[in-house]
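Researcher: Re-running this chain for the archive, since the previous output was lost when a drive failed. Same request as before.
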Amino acid sequence: MFIDVNIYKNLETDSDMIQAAVDAAALTGETVVIPKINARTGKSVWDITKTILLDDESTVVLQNAHLRLGDGAFCNAFANRNSKLGGAIGKEHTQRNISIIGIGSAILDGGMHNGMYEDNGIARKVMKKYDYHMTENCMMYFRNVENLKIDNITIKNQRYWGICMYTTSYSRVSNIRFISESNVPNQDGVDILNGCHDVIVENITGSIGDNIIAILASGGNVYRKVTNTLREGDIHNITVRNVIAYGVCGCALIRLLNHDGYRIYNVRIDNVIEASPWSENDASVAQNPDLVIKTDDEGNILPWKKLIPGEKGYRTEATIIIGESYWYAEEKAKMGDTFGISISNVMSHSRYGVWLNNTLLDSSFDNIRMFGNGFMAVYFGEGEFENVRFSNLSYDKECKPLKSDEHIYIDWNKTESKGFSCVYFNGSKVEKVLFDNMKCGKYMDSVFGGHGTGNVLYSGLDYSEIPKLTTVDGVKVEER
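Model: Regenerated structure tokens:
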């Protein structure tokens, strides 16, 4: 049995119709169906002006339905009801068994942006005062949910993060397509945030205006305090697989970031393909609206040139990034805070295939392939890295970096590299780092470059087409 939202066509708004059906279903256990045509308006687009709040055992089916956030509205399309409770809510407030399922063409659309942007501390250092938290601009927002299922939905031009999960567990997000024009900052796809564990994200496609998958645990002002202890805020037991997508911005496709004592561990990422078009005329990286869109001293957004995806290539900064020296409230992650990360089967033409910063322990990378105008297979930034293994790294025969990759410096996160090296160390401390079975690109100057301390072992290394094994200063490079 199901409840058709159209039986509430006498109500004043589309949001009221859907909420009434959800509330009725909470009493009967029935499934709520949102059909393509709205019987109240006769239109094929549903106007969402208030967050649809879901109860335990809520199942909502979007049957070829197109839901669009209303002009000027400050709300999510969907959220679990208890997510709106303040503070670090406890186990007694856990909600269970919530499902949002698309059938056919199911679309959640950000519509016209409402003008609320976050202060990112770089381009936008002042944020206007709103009566809403930034997470009200997430398309879907979930907090303290067990057994959440989201499946077969297209998310278009979200106003902030597409699917936001805090303290969510034993859950699955699958078969999601993103469509982004990258004219809004912070258009992450799926955000797995403080306190999430035992979550699967799979079969993700499309274009995104920021990180398509972000796994983030931090004490920063955007990331709400949603747990009572640090350990409750750790992120662990996460699987991400089958991501075929591209960024129309200068970010990473998949980003792991933790600071302020939170830990990220036991994460498995498999089969990530950067699907964007590329050419020799690409920009070094696509412009990132998060850094382009600025505010004045009062927090008003200044005019900016709209980005036109396709004018130049979509090459991202990195396909995989783990750790950053920025975005923390009190302290950076320390050795032992990020560990047990396993990444395999990555195809990249990003500036960096794998970009490591800050710290990483007891982790592995396998089958990282650079193609097109991909540049550096692995970049180590400032920090400590121990017991990290790389196997089966390769460059396609004609893989060629851009001339602009030769000298890179990014002030705000202290990223720097010089020359053309397959692997680069920027003041990194490395111990027990191994490279096994690596074929280098013929347009590189050396396999290993940069500067740091510690040791690197290698075996099965083919660098027959490039001049040098190493130009690195301070890191001992030895054959295993």
